[in-house]
Amino acid sequence: MSLILLASFVFLLMPIFLLLYIRSYNRHKKNHVLEKQNMQQKFESEMLQARVEVQDQTMQSIATELHDNVGQLLSLTTLTLNSINLNDEGKAKKKIDNSLALVNKSIKELRELAKLLHGEQLVENGIGHAIDQEINWLNKAGTYELKINNLLIDLQIASPNKDLIILRLLQEIINNIIKHAQATHIQLDSYLTDNILHLRVVENGVGFNPEEIKSKKTGMGLNSIFKRIEMINGKLTLNSASGEGTSISIEVPYP
C-alpha cells in the first residue's frame, strides 16, 4: 500500500519538476538571447567608434599634410614667382620651370590626400594596402628609419570589420610610438599563415614597464588596444622594458 502511495506521489511530482525544468530552460534561453543581443550591440558600437577614430586620424593626417607639406610648397611657389624679373629671361625661365615643378608636386600631394578622404576605401582595398598607406604617411615624416615587410598587399581574402579594427590598432600603436617612444627605428612585419593574420611592430625607443602602466591606469591607449584585439578574438603579445624598446605582436583569426 505504501509503495503505491510513494509511486503516486512521485508520479504527481514529475509534472511539477518538468514544469520547473521547462521554466528554467526558457529563462536560460531568454538570458542567452539577451546576452547575444548585448554582445552584438557592443560589437556594433565598438565598430562605429573604430570607424569614427579612423576617420578622425585620417582628417588629422590630412590637416598636418596640408599645413606642413602642401602649404609649404605653395608658399615656395609664390615666393619664386614673385622674385621673377622679366628683364632677365634666362633666370626668369629657370624660376618659371621651378615654379611649375612645385605646382606639379603640390597637385601630386593633393591627389594623395584626396585618396585619404575616402577613409573607407583604405579598408576596401584590403588590409595590406591600408597598412601600406599608414606606413607611407609615417615615412613622409622622415623621423624614423623604417624596415617594412608587408606581405598582405596581394591578399585575396578580406574581412571588412576585422580590417577596420586591425587598421585602428596599427594607428593606435603608431600614435603611441610617436607620442611616447622616442624611437629612431621601427620595424613592421605583416603576413598570413594558416588563417592567422600576424602583425608585429618593433621599435627601439625608451620602453616602459607594462605592469606599471596598467596599475596606474594611465595606459588608455594600451587598454584600448587590448580591448579591441579581444573583440576580434585575437591575441596580443607585448614585450617592453625601460631602455630596451617595445615589441607588439598581434595574431587574429582571418578572414
From TrEMBL:
Compartments, as annotated in UniProt: Cytoplasm
Keyword presence, Protein transport: no
Transmembrane segment boundaries: 6-22
First-tier enzyme category under EC: transferase
Domain of life assignment: Bacteria
Keyword Transmembrane helix listed: yes
Domain Histidine kinase positions: 61-255
Cofactor(s) essential for the protein: [4Fe-4S] cluster
EC number(s) stated in the UniProt entry for this protein: 2.7.13.3
A Pfam entry, by short name: HATPase_c
Keywords linked to the UniProt accession: 4Fe-4S, ATP-binding, Cytoplasm, Iron, Iron-sulfur, Kinase, Membrane, Metal-binding, Nucleotide-binding, Phosphoprotein, Transferase, Transmembrane, Transmembrane helix, Two-component regulatory system
Catalytic activity reported: ATP + protein L-histidine = ADP + protein N-phospho-L-histidine
Function: Member of the two-component regulatory system NreB/NreC involved in the control of dissimilatory nitrate/nitrite reduction in response to oxygen. NreB functions as a direct oxygen sensor histidine kinase which is autophosphorylated, in the absence of oxygen, probably at the conserved histidine residue, and transfers its phosphate group probably to a conserved aspartate residue of NreC. NreB/NreC activates the expression of the nitrate (narGHJI) and nitrite (nir) reductase operons, as well as the putative nitrate transporter gene narT.
Protein name: Oxygen sensor histidine kinase NreB
Species of provenance: Pedobacter riviphilus
